[in-house]
Write a structure and sequence with these properties.
The chain is of the alpha+beta class. Helices cover 32% and strands 24% of the residues. The chain is built from 14 helices and 27 strands. It is globular, with a radius of gyration of 26 Å. Belongs to the DegT/DnrJ/EryC1 family.
Length: 515
């Protein structure tokens, strides 16, 4: 099956095995549908001219499978209509709650198997279309509050699959550096389009361990964009090198190539760029500069799981890349976690050694390493979620499109710019509010119960911990302007179209009232 968010009725394929004896078709809840089966029932002996269904469920999930014969399914809900014709036991339809359904066009001797997420509960039924429309309107009215992020929604969708995976690891008795980590490293390397992936404790360690493996340390410089989460710079400071900050491009908010060039000195050893907000940096230009000055290129891809630059995924575009699996990321774990990707076999070997106490053989330590490992449970859970990542990113893109369509061409509002060569993954949807209107917009969003965030309110050069770098206000004007003007709106795979439309309408209304 193609993993799907299943926010809408979705047709899926079930695995079938055919030989001389016949055909065997199976359905497994971990792989084929996102709920635990608590009820099974059949619909049969149907009159071909009499329709069935004519109800909706408030919370119940179902999977409908044609055991014999054929029939037509029609679903209405969320302003859309979905129709399916089922005539093979290897094909089924997943039905989330909140949809009116009708079953028609029964062939003779049709048998429909229904798998349900809960036992029978009459209170969960809505048995008239008029009542359903009223209920649906009430759900939209109840909306009136949109969280910036609700991680529990992930669990609501794939929680049972995650619990099964967690139990498998617990039963295995192996919790560090086992087969789950090896499997996930291979899967993630393949996903990114690289030869090697090394699991580490977090995204910060991914940066510092890579720099250490390159021999970068005290007295060396690494160029870092000023408008980023502070971990990019901290990873450099952690190994004794100096982060050299440069301003960002005012259009893309990623590292400014001309400023990058002017920051290079004889002490410069590497460039640590950031694919900020899930928007790829211009890697061809960066790699050209790096080659000219013999510099290493490190991609901070902590916000760019699955983002593409000219058809290639972030994490495969430099000498090495670092990912974070912090829970809020596009591919987030259930605690801290990180990954380093590279095509360099010798570097991969050294990275693995450094992250494991400087040891490649137990109790034999060849390097001054650290303890930074991705554990088995996190690896298993992340492997489970990786299967859904493309669908999640696609859903983010669809929601971002709603923002663009409803908020484009508003005075004093700048929407994200996407170069023609970029395929962003919308880790956050960050808008720029001009003419000192951000504080007013924030108060407006609060009043209308819309979540928001600011990425980031203080640029790195003005952080207290970096006073030793002796930067001052005005050194990086673009980053400073962004810190005063940007605001991130809700955008997550599990935000509904209705929620995003509500947020967009609130933002639009604000600007209509504040011209």
């Amino acid at each position: 099956m193609k993993n799907n968010l299943c926010n809408t009725p979705t047709q899926i394929s079930l695995k079938s095995i055919e030989d001389e004896r016949g055909i065997l078709t199976s359905a497994q809840f971990q792989q084929d549908f996102p709920f635990t089966i608590k009820r099974i029932y059949y619909i049969y002996n149907n009159h071909e001219n009499i329709a069935r269904g004519f109800h909706a469920h408030k919370t119940l999930w179902q999977c409908m499978i044609p055991i014999a014969g054929s029939f037509k399914l029609t679903f209405i809900g969320k302003g859309e209509k979905h129709q399916f014709y089922l005539d093979q036991p290897s094909s089924a339809v997943l039905v989330p709650p909140g949809y009116w359904r009708e079953i028609t066009d029964f062939a003779p001797n049709t048998v429909c198997l229904v798998l349900a997420s809960e036992v029978f509960d009459e209170n969960d039924y809505i048995r008239s279309l008029e009542e359903f429309k009223k209920w649906e309107q009430e759900q939209n009215t109840k909306l009136q509050a949109v969280p910036f992020l609700d991680l529990k929604r992930y669990y609501d969708h794939i929680g049972q699959e995650l619990l099964v995976g967690c139990e498998e690891v617990l039963k295995s008795g192996c919790y560090i550096s086992g087969s789950e980590l090896s499997n996930f490293e291979q899967e993630f390397a393949k996903y990114c389009g690289v030869n090697f992936a090394i699991g580490v404790g977090n995204g910060l360690d991914a940066i510092s361990i890579t720099m250490q493996a390159w021999g970068i340390g005290e007295g060396d410089e690494v160029i870092v964009p000023c408008n980023s989460f502070i971990a990019t710079a901290l990873g450099i400071s952690k190994i004794g090198a100096d982060p050299v900050l440069v301003d960002v491009d005012e259009t893309t908010y990623n590292i400014d190539i001309e400023k990058l060039k002017s920051a290079i000195t004889p002490r410069t050893k590497a460039i640590a760029l950031v694919h900020l907000y899930g928007q790829p940096a211009d890697m061809d230009l960066i790699n050209t500069v790096a080659k000219q000055y013999n510099l290493k290129v490190f991609e901070d891809a902590a916000q760019a799981h699955g983002a593409e630059y000219k058809g290639r995924r972030c994490g495969s575009l430099g000498d090495a890349a670092g990912f974070s699996f912090y829970p809020t990321k596009n591919l987030g774990g259930f605690g801290d976690g990180g990954m380093i990707t590279t095509n360099d076999a010798e570097l991969a070997k050294k990275l693995r050694c450094l992250s494991n106490y400087g040891s490649s053989e137990k109790y034999h330590h060849t390097l001054l390493g650290t303890n930074s490992r991705l554990d088995e449970i996190q690896a298993k859970l992340l492997s489970t979620k990786l299967k859904y990542l493309e669908d999640w990113n696609q859903n983010r893109a669809q929601l971002a499109k709603i923002y663009y369509e409803q908020l484009n061409n508003i005075e004093d509002l700048v929407l994200p710019y996407v170069p023609e060569w970029a395929k962003p993954v919308w880790h956050v949807y960050t808008i720029r509010v001009l003419n000192n209107k951000r504080p007013l917009l924030i108060e407006w969003l609060k009043a209308h119960k819309v979540g928001y965030n600011i990425h980031y309110p203080v640029p790195i050069h003005l952080q207290v911990c970096y006073r030793n770098l002796e930067y001052t206000q005005g050194d990086f004007p673009v980053s400073e302007s962004l810190s005063n003007e940007i605001i991130s709106l809700p955008l997550d795979p599990y935000h509904s179209k209705v929620e995003i439309e509500y947020v967009a309408s609130m933002v639009k209304t604000f600007f209509d009232n504040n011209k």
